[in-house]
Amino acid sequence: MSAYVPNSSSRDSKSSFWKAGASVPGSIKPVYGAQHPPMTHKPKSESPKKEERVRGSKSDAFVNFENSTSDAWDDGDDDLLQMASVQMSLRDVRSSANAVLEHHSKQINSHRGSLPDGDGTMSPGSSHPHGGGPGIGVRLNSYKTPKTSHICCVQPSLVDREAAKAEKFKTLLAETNIDLDDLRQLSWSGIPTSVRPVTWKILAGYLPPNADRRAATLERKRKEYFGFIDQYYETRYNDMHEDTFRQILKDIPRMTTLAHLMKHKVVQQIFERILFIWAIRHPASGYVQGINDLVTPFFVVFLSEYISNDIEAENCDINELPKATLDIIEADSFWCTTKLLDGIQDNYTFAQPGIQMKVNALQELIKRIDAPLHKHLVSHNVEYLQFSFRWMNNLLMREIPLRCTIRLWDTYLSEVNGFADFHLYVCASFLVQFSSDILRERDFQGILMFLQNLPTRHWNNKEISEIMAEAYKLKYMFADAPNHLMKKS
């Protein structure tokens, strides 16, 4: 609230008040409440009494001002007590009241010609220049119409915005033929939890945009997956597949992102079947460490479709779900993981050329957008491959919490080739986010330890949204202009 500034007439009438005071007009002095009195350094015995302090301070501006005014609030307590003990008749009360009103009317009439209204004239029907009581009019001593204040509109809460966005999704998903461009645009900034499972299936290319074909597609694909189980899963102990299955059995218990769920044997078996069937159907790459992590987000999101309470899906008791429901989640997770890996399979073929190319591209990108950081890494013999190989191999799943990975994948699924192309710019933005922290590390060991244990445990959607906003800018700076990644001649 802005402080009251008296007008010229007010300044004239109070000139003695401001001159008597030691501070500048309008200045603010400390105000002490009952619980926080001003501190004094003098002993209590040396402090003057309140009455003596007031009487002895001739330069007290407030006292001077108080003595120069006459108002109804100036009556002391003793006077009021004396008045209460006086017996007055009704006639005396009425007579006194009429005398006060008559005196007040004469005072107003004497000032009527000299006190302007808000527009410079007196209101003819106003008994007081302010249209208010005598006390407030005399105290404010201002006759101008107050300025209007701007309205601060109430911003909708996050819950309201989430609900409004969910309604937009439901309206779009209810269409007979969904426009995929509209769905991608709406999903880029995040998908509400309630509609995320079906939206992911459509964006991944598992479900068709046409609503009439979805039920038949789901039935056919789920049946096809369990046909693979019947046909191939018994061969997991054969000489041809024994090494692959043994590696899968080693990797699944190490999955820290689903540490709680992985305690359940039924979940371990679901992941074993998904990974083994995918490996034998993709002999060019086979199973590679890191692929097991990529099943997790799909599994958790599709699991959330069958949980109605507010617990996080990864913390639920999986044994409470019927087998038919678990079969549906397993089949849908398999097909969506397959769709994802089809776009980045060169990450997992022999020598993993896709990852090596992305690591080199990341190095060139950082060299252009954060030269001091790149120079710091090079000067301490830190190779980009030493820390960013895992970023590319596991799509940052080991670097951020699972909730952040799910939010990140909302955008990846919304981007064309998001897991293959946009991920590079996300990694660049992610690295630059910690640039100042890395520059504070003064040796190889400190830098590498920091990069392998980044402080992201507390991250939520806000931090991920900031990373992706920067990645979006980098994409449009460099994606369509590859020469920008090259050194200037």
What is the average of the pLDDT values?
78
The string of secondary-structure elements, in order, is HHHHHHHHHHHHHHHHHHHHHHH
Spatial gap, N to C terminus: 59 Å
Q: What is the strand content?
A: under 5%
Largest sheet: none
Total number of β-strand segments?
0
* Helicity range: 55-70%
Based on Cα principal axes, name the global outline. Answer: globular
Tally the helices: what do you get? 23
* Assembly type: single chain
Radius of gyration: 38 Å
Provide the structure class.
mainly alpha
Which consecutive residue ranges, at least 5 long each, have pLDDT under 50?
Answer: 1-38, 40-46, 50-59, 69-85, 114-143
Description:
- The chain is mainly alpha-helical and 489 residues long.
- The protein is built from 23 helices and no strands.
- It has helices at residues 8-13, 15-20, 50-56, 61-67, 77-84, 90-112, 134-140, 158-173, 180-187, 196-203, 211-232, 242-251, 265-281, 291-304, 323-343, 353-369, 371-379, 384-393, 402-414, 418-433, 435-440, 444-452, 461-478.
- The longest helix has 23 residues, at 90-112.
- The radius of gyration is 38 Å and the shape is globular.
- 22% of the residues are buried.
